């Protein structure tokens, strides 16, 4: 049995079903991400595991024990929220020590554990600082230290970085992942950011409208989405119907399913490509383009259908609106999704 098991979980708020027959397993020591848009049920499932929400139907097991109706204090779970939830009248040391004091540990043991936690989250020198004197990133580090200092069985992180600026967010992603690996603590991370999920996770569980859409490693869920929603949410695929695929590539293999093509899987040129086995080639016209950091995303019209194609932002890859281009894509990069 996996370390954490969600079995046939249903959750209603009144007549609104927010979790629909969720079956999900999490192995010990993994960092898994519950990914999906707002309102898809990911945070609700996290709160059900923590005991902050009851479930309507189903069972939750942790380390072989049925915790479905257990009191939150009995579950030995640490939690980090989007809001830092620090005590404003306590300094860094006192905030981190709070949970240990509730366990009635000795002052010597508390001091030792707090010092270790402060060093682990890189807050040495800030021991006496109050939350009002800390940056958002530093406050989140305090919240993380407070959650891990009690050595919980499971660490839950509910969109903890969404209120932090992009540069610091990347730094904290690295820190959290490093700490999780060092401690070997089973961790569940909730986010709506696919890039964050790709960086952080051993396994991604993708949610959509209260259902579990797909569970897989970051690489597999990116390269092999199983559904139209997964393809559109992970990796920003072009998703077209079978009929549209035939218009773009006449004579292509008939299928009743949608076709998903990653923008970066399409190569563009001003001159035709040489013919290659297992590659499709077609003509298009540049409609518009947008800059995404080091990538240029072109919108290309092909027989009345708009496709997105990504190229690295280099001077010799720049095309003008209205310009005719040739596009080639390997057959294996044209994925069928339901």
Features:
OB fold (Dihydrolipoamide Acetyltransferase, E2P); 338 residues; elongated; alpha+beta
Structure explained in plain terms:
- With 338 residues, the chain is an alpha+beta fold.
- The chain has two domains: 4-225, Rossmann fold; 238-337, Beta Barrel (OB fold (Dihydrolipoamide Acetyltransferase, E2P)), CATH 2.40.50.140.
- It is 27% helix and 33% strand.
- Strands 6-7-8-3-9-10 form a six-stranded mixed beta sheet, sandwiched between helices. It has a five-stranded antiparallel beta sheet with strand order 13-17-14-15-16. The chain has a four-stranded antiparallel beta sheet with strand order 2-1-4-5, with helices on one face.
- A hairpin with a 2-residue loop joins strand 4 and strand 5 (65-66).
- Helix 2 (92-102) packs across helix 3 (107-120).
- The radius of gyration is 24 Å and the shape is elongated.
- The relative contact order is 0.12.
- The mean pLDDT is 93.
Layout of helices and strands:
Layout lengths: L3 E10 L2 E11 L4 E5 L6 H9 L6 E6 L2 E2 L10 E4 L11 H11 L4 H14 L15 H13 L5 E5 L7 H18 L2 E6 L2 H7 L2 E6 L2 E6 L1 H6 L4 H6 L4 E3 L1 H7 L9 E4 L5 E3 L9 E14 L2 E8 L2 E8 L11 E7 L4 E3 L1
Parallel strand pairs: 3-8, 3-9, 6-7, 7-8
Antiparallel strand pairs: 1-2, 1-4, 4-5, 9-10, 11-12, 12-18, 13-17, 14-15, 14-17, 15-16
Helix pairs in contact: 2-3, 2-4, 3-4
């Amino acid at each position: 049995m996996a370390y954490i098991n969600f079995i046939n979980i249903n959750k209603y708020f009144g007549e609104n079903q927010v979790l629909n027959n969720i079956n999900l397993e999490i192995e010990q020591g993994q960092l898994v991400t519950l990914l999906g848009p707002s309102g898809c049920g990911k945070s609700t499932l996290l709160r059900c595991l923590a005991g902050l929400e009851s479930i309507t139907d189903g069972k939750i097991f942790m380390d072989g024990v049925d915790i479905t109706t257990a009191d939150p204090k009995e579950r030995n779970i640490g939690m980090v929220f989007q809001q830092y939830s620090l005590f404003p009248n306590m300094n860094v040391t006192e905030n981190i020590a709070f949970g240990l004091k509730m366990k009635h540990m000795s002052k010597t043991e508390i001091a030792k554990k707090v010092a270790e936690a402060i060093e682990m989250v890189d807050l040495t020198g800030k021991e006496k600082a109050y939350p009002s004197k800390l940056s958002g990133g530093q406050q989140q580090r305090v919240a993380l230290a407070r959650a891990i200092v009690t050595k919980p069985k499971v660490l839950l992180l509910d969109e903890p970085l969404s209120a932090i600026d992009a540069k610091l967010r990347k730094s904290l992603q690295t820190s959290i992942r490093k700490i999780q690996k060092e401690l070997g603590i089973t961790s569940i991370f909730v986010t709506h950011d696919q890039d964050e999920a790709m960086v952080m996770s051993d396994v991604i569980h993708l949610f959509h409208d209260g259902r579990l859409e797909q569970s897989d490693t970051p690489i597999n869920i990116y390269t092999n989405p199983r559904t139209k929603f997964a393809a559109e949410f992970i990796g920003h695929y072009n998703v077209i119907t079978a009929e549209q695929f035939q218009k773009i590539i006449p004579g292509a293999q008939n299928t009743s399913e949608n076709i998903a093509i990653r923008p970066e899987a399409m190569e563009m040129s001003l001159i035709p490509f040489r013919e290659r086995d297992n590659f499709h080639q077609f003509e298009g016209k540049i409609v518009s383009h947008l800059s995404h950091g080091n990538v240029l995303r072109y919108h290309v019209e092909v027989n009345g259908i708009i496709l997105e194609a990504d190229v690295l932002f280099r001077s010799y890859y720049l095309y003008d609106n209205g310009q005719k281009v040739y596009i080639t894509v390997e057959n294996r990069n044209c994925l069928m999704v339901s």
